[in-house]
């Protein structure tokens, strides 16, 4: 991938977001330079080496206990619905979180690890799904490729699963999808996802979308992170508005009180329009 463009201000972020209005966005507090979902990251590689069924084991354990700790009705859940719940509660899955708001993604990029550069990705999801031969988003209950990706962890015979679903080929690239909205924070964060098969060489999002019109990575140098974070707080992007719980409220209050003093500045002087536009 080419050398990334540099983001230095919230104005840069807004410019990107308004230009790439149909893109999805993801922020990393460090420069990972890849788009790997949690379950396939290096930190779990040892677990897979000693327990090839590691993914299945942790999913089944979660499904076994979760109903006793929640008042949600899981009786109609299939594999994909369970993945949404697991992802929401911090279990590593083959889902990767994205947001339809660049401001949300920017917040997660700059909120932590201020001693490291951050990165922000923009993805055109329709182009990713075009690789599967359809436009737009899959219908979750009926798309057979999506069913394969969500159920692959339960099968030792991928060819058998592919045949069972009447697929012409085994899905081997990520797919973009919009989830059913099950949690408040999915609304607040404008959540969308990509779902990934077991990693294969040259089958990652970065490999199959080489054009910057479809996938682009921006770098946020560490010395700009605190100022961008402060500006995001100023326009209402903070943990309280993105998570909507009492813990995030407390964190937001403390962050706000770090401002020692505040004197209202003069309002910005904008050039008035020569003619008032008509909106109806």
Outline the low-pLDDT stretches: none
Radius of gyration of CA atoms, rounded to a whole number = 21 Å
E-strand count? 7
Number of helices: 13
Order of helices and strands: EHEHHHEHEHHHEHEHEHHH
Domains counted in the coordinates: how many?
Answer: 1
Biggest sheet statistics: 4 strands, mixed
| Strand order, sheet with most strands | 1-7-4-2
Average pLDDT, to the nearest integer?
91
Percent helix range: 25-40%
Instruction: Give the overall silhouette.
Output: globular
Strand content: 5-15%
Distance between the termini: 46 Å
- SS content category: alpha+beta
Can you walk through the features of this model?
By secondary structure, the chain is of the alpha+beta class. The chain has one domain (5-257). Helix content is 38%, strand content 11%. The chain contains 13 helices and seven strands. It has a four-stranded mixed β-sheet with strand order 1-7-4-2. Helix 5 (102-110) crosses helix 11 (222-234). The radius of gyration is 21 Å and the shape is globular. The model has no long low-confidence stretch (mean pLDDT 91).
């Amino acid at each position: 991938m080419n050398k990334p463009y540099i983001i230095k201000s919230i104005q840069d972020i807004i410019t990107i977001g308004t230009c790439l209005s149909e893109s999805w966005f993801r922020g990393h507090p460090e420069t990972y330079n890849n788009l790997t979902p949690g379950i396939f990251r290096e930190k779990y590689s040892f677990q897979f080496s000693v327990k090839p069924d590691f993914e299945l084991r942790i999913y089944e354990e979660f499904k076994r206990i979760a109903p006793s700790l929640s008042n949600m009705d899981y009786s109609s859940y299939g594999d994909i619905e369970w993945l949404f719940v697991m992802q929401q509660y911090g279990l590593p899955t083959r889902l990767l979180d994205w947001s339809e708001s660049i401001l949300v993604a920017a917040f997660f990029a700059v909120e932590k690890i201020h001693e490291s550069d951050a990165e922000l990705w923009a993805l055109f999801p329709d182009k990713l799904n075009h690789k599967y031969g359809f436009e737009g988003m899959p219908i979750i209950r009926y798309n057979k490729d999506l069913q394969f990706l969500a159920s692959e962890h339960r099968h030792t015979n991928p060819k058998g699963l592919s045949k069972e679903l009447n697929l012409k080929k085994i899905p081997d690239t990520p797919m973009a999808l919009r989830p059913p909205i099950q949690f408040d924070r999915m609304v607040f964060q404008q959540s969308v996802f990509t779902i990934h098969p077991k990693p294969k060489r040259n089958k990652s999002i970065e490999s199959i979308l080489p054009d910057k019109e479809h996938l682009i990575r921006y770098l946020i140098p560490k010395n700009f992170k605190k100022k961008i974070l402060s500006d995001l707080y100023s326009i209402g992007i903070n943990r309280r508005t993105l998570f909507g719980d009492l813990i995030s409220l407390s964190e937001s209050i403390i962050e706000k009180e770090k401002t020692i003093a505040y004197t209202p500045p003069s309002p910005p002087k904008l050039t008035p329009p020569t003619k008032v536009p008509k909106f109806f």
